[in-house]
Amino acid sequence: MEPKHRLTQFDLTNIIVGAIVGADIYIASALTAGLVGPFSIVVWMVAGVFAGIIAMVFAYCSFYVPHVGGPFAYVSAALDQFYGFLTGWSLWIAELMALPVFAIAFVLYLQSFVTLNLEGQIVVRALFIGTLTLVNIIGVKAAGRFNDVLTVVKLFPLILLILAGLLAFFTKPEAVAANYSPLLPLGFQNVAYAVVLVFWAYVGFEMGTFPASEVEKPRSTIPRAIINGMAIVGLFYILTNFVLYGLINWTVLTESKTPLVLAGTILFGTAGAAVMTIGALFSVSGSDESGMLGTSRLAYAMALDGLLPRIFARLHPRFGTPYAILILQGAIAFLLSGYGSLSELISFSVFNIAFAYLLTCIALIVLVRHQQQHLVGQRILPLIGIAICTFLLYSTTLSDKIAGTLVILAGIPLYIYFSPKEDIHHLKRLFLAEETVLLRQVEIRNRYLGNFIRLLHLAYQRILVRIRSL
């Protein structure tokens, strides 16, 4: 059955932007200050290019395999279900590792308002994760009514920071030059690891590479939307970081756990600090809520295929949400939030993400061999993607390599135990229904920067209509 509405290039661009930009900008910026200093601005550019190339690989995979499941579906179709399982497993672990990052960041920014002792931090993390888990179990449709307001609340501080920062740079260019000099004070030894941490901020583009059957003219629309979406995200990230490193000397930034609050204080005093803190709290909450939703759906989809315990596919009798996996991942996220540091969790997450992306790049090479289509760059892009993923895997820490490899290998006995079991056909048909998939993806369009672009587009259209009516 054809969906009632096909996504245009503009729709798809919004989905990609909304899926990528969240709370990452509040977290990742200061982590690289102590690694490479002001050279971080270059790192953000490089990581954006890397992510854009792999995003194009995903786009072409979705063209050749127009099925639900993302990399899990692509790799399963190109290789076999075992490698598809390893891809989905590593991606689920990566997303699971990202959930506690937001809980830690929420506590750090909350302490700009109130000082918390260790017990208080534990309570806040528990309430934060518990509340968002409950929201996902109950359902988030009602929350969508407030999405336009929340978008402004989350974006306003960053847009204000960019505009005010650029204005300050024009009036005092010598201060900017001083903060950017020397550009690479610590040499190149930590650049690779800095790229790993920043790459995490660009993850999420795979949300825009869902089945080509849901997109108007997918052969041209998906690649263009990927390019446009990544360009918007990259510009937004680079402008924010350009202002941040121009305002604050990297040695000071290294010591700050809330870098954008520090920047807001410099530009607007205590009022600016309060505005940036509120924006951070809203953004971190929104990103973790959507992250929980996406992570649970991945595990749910694999459980429907019989590759994970059936309890992961158990739906709440009233709300129809996979409550069992939501509760489990919430508990794991809470435990990890008290164990790992931000950089350690992000780095470990990127190791698993890079492994899943590596298999996806290999999958495209196989898919292209059996097709008559001639998409631009379809043979060279996966090779470049393999090189990028190999670089990311190599650039993580030794502990990440060891732990990440062991976790991925731990998935093999799970596959051996669960794969002979039948999938849950009736739930799988419902979950994979084209209309259901379309609705899930359109929801992402209304997130964060993607929704802001949509609002600007609507305002622009209304202004044009009024001008033409005069």
UniProtKB/TrEMBL annotation:
Q: Is Ribosomal protein one of the keywords UniProt gives this record?
A: no
> A Gene Ontology CC term for this entry?
plasma membrane
The topology of this chain with respect to the membrane is: Multi-pass membrane protein
Compartments it resides in: Cell membrane
Provide the alphabetized UniProt keywords: Cell membrane, Membrane, Transmembrane, Transmembrane helix
User: What's the domain of life for this entry?
Assistant: Archaea
Q: Name the residues that span the membrane.
A: 12-35, 42-65, 89-110, 122-143, 149-171, 183-205, 225-248, 260-284, 290-308, 320-339, 345-368, 380-396, 402-419
- What name is this protein filed under? Amino acid transporter
Please report the organism this UniProt entry assigns to the protein. Methanoculleus oceani
